Amino acid sequence: MHPDTCLAQIGNNKAEKTGAISSPIYLSTTYRHPRLGESTGFDYTRTKNPTRQTLEDAIAQLEGGVQGFAYSSGMAAIAGVLGLFGQGDHLLVSHDLYGGTYRLLEQILPRQGITTTFVDTGDWQKVEAAVQENTKAIFLETPTNPTMRISDLQAIIGVAQRNGLLTIVDNTFMTPYLQRPLTLGADVVVHSATKYLGGHNDVLSGLAVAREQELADRIYFLQNSIGATLGPQDAWLLMRGMKTLALRMDRHQENAMVLAKWLTGHPCVKQVYFPGLENHPGRDVHIGQADGYGGMLSFEVVREELVEPLLRHLNLIAFAESLGGVESLITYPARQTHFDVPEAVRNELGVTSSLLRLSVGIEHYEDLIEDMAQAFAASERELAE
Ligand SMILES: *Cc1c(COP(=O)(O)O)cnc(C)c1O
């Protein structure tokens, strides 16, 4: 089946007794045992919950893996999967990645004896050169957040396989509708489902999927032991959002393309980062491994002084953290998502104090352009006074 069909059908045909089309929400935390030594398959909700399982089966099917896992947040999913590693292990990680993951790798995992080298995963040879004797995995995002750098998944997976490493991909920006790293040989995919999968800025959640059963069993053991699982009401809300992912994503990327082109021609804009633009580095690699460009873009304004008034004058586009919802949001990475990344490192990555990130929503693109145009004009007037 096509992903659109899988998405629309999530949870349907599961409630055999009632025929309910919308998946029931099982709030029960515990389940009666028929008799000693017997189980219905459900015992205690942290271990397994019917509503959560419907979601976990859906994401596994969408990503092309054997088993899915739902967590209380994207960070819980990432921390849960990184629980595979311990004392003395070393990880290779995209140098340009989500700030929260950077914080986890820099400030928490070293306490557990896990070390990380941040590398440019856009260049597989640099990744291969950074492999150490104790390296256990490569963790990457593509496109990256916020400068939309592209990594060649097939080449990175090749490095991992030659060196006996796991490949873990944060697929939040693309979603399985546009990119399925497990089908290219990655071992684990993680998501902040808070973003496009949920899609409505109303449910915090994370997902992981493993390609093979042996690894799935280890991730399941960690999920159940650590316990940061997704509650049944949130699992239902996430599935409700996922049903329309295909339609939303199509509109997100249509709008993003229009906005990227419009911004490129604006005199206040120095640089636009969007994989759909002809001159975007890595565009050909991206087209070879994904079915679209997504709805995220970032742009650098010509002067840092424009940032503050611009954010203040936008009316429709909300100045807020997060991404992937139906409402357009603008983020200032240097002060928000990437605040924990040292300034020198940020500048090296292009996450300068003049960079803004736009999560393009599903509104009419003319209204988005009009809002941007009036905010730029008002900001320029103010600075000229
Ligand atoms: C938001 C985000 C996360 C963290 O997810 P939460 O749901 O906020 O915990 C991880 N990776 C990426 C790429 C994100 O955008």
UniProtKB/TrEMBL annotation:
A single Gene Ontology CC term: cytoplasm
One of the protein's GO biological processes: transsulfuration
Pfam families hit by this protein: Cys_Met_Meta_PP
Xref: SUPFAM superfamilies: PLP-dependent transferases
Keyword set includes Ion transport: no
Cofactor requirement: pyridoxal 5'-phosphate
Family: Belongs to the trans-sulfuration enzymes family.
Record protein name field: Cystathionine gamma-synthase
Organism for this UniProt entry: Tumebacillus algifaecis
Lineage per the UniProt record: Bacteria, Bacillati, Bacillota, Bacilli, Bacillales
